[in-house]
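Backbone-to-sequence.
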């Protein structure tokens, strides 16, 4: 058995492990389905309706004191964009990191943003 390839493989794994991005220090309720997401844009009710109409039941009141944002989140190695409702009293801007509860179209529920998260730590070597 050659030990050289094993040592090279272990060294490569060690190098790759240092590249892993921290995903929030336990801020997101992963166990119950929440995701970390980034706000892409704030949306007017009409724009939200045009994008998410197929996911909500008939009679959904798009104007009912709700605010909407388009967010991008990662699930199963893929990036997804979706429309989400914003919790009352939460002021969001594009670029904000948020806790997202993904949509469940089968149950007629839009995605929802519950809270603002602290910004991710700067990359190594990146200036603040």
């Amino acid at each position: 058995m050659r030990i050289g390839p094993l040592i090279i493989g272990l060294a490569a794994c060690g190098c790759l492990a240092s590249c892993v991005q921290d995903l929030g220090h336990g801020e997101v309720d992963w166990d119950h389905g929440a995701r970390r997401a980034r706000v892409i844009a704030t949306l007017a009710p009409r724009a939200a309706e045009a994008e998410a109409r197929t996911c909500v039941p008939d009679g959904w009141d798009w104007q009912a004191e709700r605010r909407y944002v388009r967010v991008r989140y990662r699930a199963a190695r893929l990036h997804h964009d979706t429309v989400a409702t914003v919790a009352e009293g939460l002021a969001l801007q594009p670029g904000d990191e948020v806790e997202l509860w993904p949509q469940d179209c089968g149950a007629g529920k839009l995605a929802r943003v519950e809270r603002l998260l602290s910004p991710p730590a700067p990359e190594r070597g990146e200036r603040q």
